[in-house]
Design goal:
By secondary structure, the chain is mainly alpha-helical. The protein has a domain of 138 residues. Helix content is 39%, strand content 9%. The strands form three sheets. It has a two-stranded antiparallel sheet. Strand 3 and strand 4 form a beta hairpin. Helix 3 packs antiparallel against helix 4.
Length: 247
């Protein structure tokens, strides 16, 4: 650890930058040592979490579901901030684990299909992006992915996906006409890689396929059964047209 700036070089006329020469060696401050301890502890926790809740393919050991209660976005959120830890100085293994799990969950939810929810019958992801949902959930889903830019912004897959995802909202994908260039709006609250939902949404669209709840799951809104899950979303209907969430 080096401290004490002993000399400031004159302004470099070619690069227009100041050069600092630091020559004194000092002990690292306590906060820095504690920060390193925290990074190490978090890294160990991620290793244990990864081993318990993911398989060797990076698939989550869960029941893949569509919907606002426990859908694909919640799967991706399990990796939130892993890349931030690496960017702050955690071990490279954290970034490697993130990539295994991110790629695995993309395959898992591309393969996962609904039965009754129309929009996801061919897969919950299409072109590695949720087929059609609101931006509250899209934003949660992307939170882990976006932070990958802090860890390795030059990664080709990251760059290609970022451009492709943006193109879904710039009228660049003929299969995803989310953007209305004439009125300069997003056409629906529900949008994604298969385009906008241009009808009223149903409770089923929001809640996902029927599922046995009692003695198996704890829904996020405290529902006791699937009927109550549907009831929670019964008024979530008017999705056609733009919405502040799309910002």
């Amino acid at each position: 650890w080096r401290g004490d700036c002993n000399q400031v070089h004159s302004l470099d006329q070619e690069n227009r930058m100041s050069h600092l020469y630091i020559t004194s060696v000092v002990a690292p401050p306590e906060w820095a040592m504690l920060e390193r301890t925290l990074l190490d502890a978090q890294s160990a926790a991620i290793e244990q979490f990864h081993g318990k809740y993911f398989d060797d393919r990076g698939y989550l050991l869960c029941v893949p579901r569509w919907g606002g209660n426990d859908g694909p976005d919640d799967a991706a959120e399990n990796m939130l901030n892993w890349t931030v830890l690496y960017a702050l100085g955690a071990d490279r293994s954290i970034l490697d684990r993130y990539r295994v799990c991110w790629e695995g969950h993309l395959r898992q939810y591309t393969e996962a299909k609904t039965v009754e929810v129309e929009m996801a019958r061919e897969g919950m992801y299409y072109k590695e992006f949720p087929v059609m949902f609101d931006w509250f959930h899209h934003g949660e889903w992307l939170s882990a992915f976006i932070l990958e830019g802090l860890a390795d912004p030059d990664d080709r897959a990251f760059q290609e996906r970022s451009r492709r995802f943006a193109g879904l909202y710039m009228d660049e994908d003929p299969q995803a006409k989310n953007y209305d260039p004439k009125h300069k709006i997003i056409r629906s609250l529900f949008n994604g890689s298969r385009g906008p939902l241009l009808r009223k949404a149903t409770a089923l669209d929001w809640a996902g396929d029927p599922i046995e709840v009692k003695d198996r799951f704890r829904p996020g809104h405290g529902e006791a059964d699937f009927a109550q899950m549907l009831d929670h979303y019964k008024d979530y209907n008017d999705v056609v047209g733009d919405h502040p969430l799309n910002l």
